[in-house]
Design goal:
The structure holds 2 protein chains of 2 kinds. Chain A is mainly β. Helices cover 0% and strands 56% of the residues of chain A. In chain B, strands 2, 4, 5, 9, 10 and 11 form a 6-stranded mixed β-sheet that branches. A 5-stranded antiparallel β-sheet of chain B has the order 1-3-8-7-6, with no helix packed on it. The chains are: A mainly beta, B mainly beta.
């Protein structure tokens, strides 16, 4: 248990569906992240929020929409996804500003788009 | 274009021996490097890190070596244990919140 909880753990959705991924941390961290991990590829940073403000947006398609209502919660809203969006989506949090600030990851949501 | 490369997708080592996982990078602006370990069905967990002003950092069985001139770092695990079997990710930071990860190396430690 790392203190970062993601729900759901598994999600299968159709291309026309709308769903949301949820992430929660109770570590008192003030930065939260969404990463995408596709098979045999590096973790790709999607979004970063610091003190509830988006500070990084890595050219992610608009069909992915993040939301950070407070420092403990992070959402990733999904709509009209494509099959190639099937991947493991990881949430992470960290304390303060890098460099050298380790990130604490959740267990991930395995997303399958059909 | 991958700025952090782990060229070995997998590595198999006998229990008790040394495991050496390698990582190369291209961006000379990286100032901090981290290693994460990932078990199946779990998120990555932080293992060890090193600042670019150092060339070695040790924590128990784990040692990370940094060769800045070669833009290369390595993680040594001695002695290797079956519980070390996992995927190891190398990561690098260049300021801000942007951490660049490698694709990972799967380590198998045989009993």
């Amino acid at each position: 248990e790392t203190g970062v909880t993601q729900t759901p753990r598994h999600l299968v959705m159709g291309m026309t569906n709308k769903k949301s991924l949820k992430c929660e941390q109770h570590l008192g961290h003030n930065a939260m992240y969404w990463y995408k991990q596709s098979a045999k590829k590096p973790l790709e940073l999607m979004f970063v929020y610091s003190l509830e403000e988006r500070v990084e947006n890595n050219s992610v398609p608009s069909r992915f929409s993040p939301e950070c209502p407070n420092s403990s919660h992070l959402f990733l809203h999904l709509h009209t996804l494509q099959p190639e969006d099937s991947a493991l989506y990881l949430c992470a949090s960290s304390r303060g500003q890098p460099p050298g600030t380790e990130a604490f990851f959740g267990q991930g949501t395995r997303l399958t788009v059909v | 274009d991958q700025q952090v490369k782990q060229n070995s997708p997998s590595l198999s080592v006998q229990e008790g021996r040394i495991s050496i996982l390698n990582c190369d990078y291209t961006n000379s602006m990286f100032d901090y490097f981290l290693w994460y370990k990932k078990y199946p069905a779990e998120g990555p967990t932080f293992l060890i890190s090193i600042s670019s002003i150092k060339d070695k950092n040790e924590d128990g069985r784990f040692t990370v070596f940094l060769n800045k001139s070669a833009k290369h770092l390595s993680l040594h695990i001695v002695p290797s244990q079956p519980g070390d079997s996992a995927v190891y990710f190398c990561a690098a930071e260049a300021g801000g919140f942007k951490t660049i990860f490698g694709a990972g190396t799967r380590l198998f430690v045989k009993a």
